[in-house]
Design brief:
Layout (H helix, E strand, L loop, with lengths): L12 H22 L3 E4 L2 H14 L5 E4 H9 L4
Parallel strand pairs: 1-2
């Protein structure tokens, strides 16, 4: 997957949202093909941009996690 567009949000938030939506659609396609709905993002900017796109477009099919938060939660015994 190429860049989600988050860095451009400082200059053009509308374009960043469009790029985030495009990446979200790629994820949705993968979820539908694999039936795997948990996605762990390695980049906090990608996580933020795609999460914002999920909120904006009402996407509920994906459980999105930031890798650092995911690791801390699971090391500490959370879900």
């Amino acid at each position: 997957m190429i860049c989600c567009g988050a860095p451009i949000s400082l200059i053009d938030s509308k374009t960043a949202l469009i790029l985030g939506r495009d990446k979200l659609n790629e994820l949705l396609e993968s979820v539908r093909e694999t039936n795997i709905n948990k996605v762990v993002m390695a980049c906090p900017c990608c996580y933020s941009n795609i999460y914002n796109a999920m909120q904006k477009f009402g996407v509920k099919e994906i459980q999105l996690y930031d890798i650092a938060s995911y690791i801390v939660t699971h090391i500490s015994g959370g879900d």
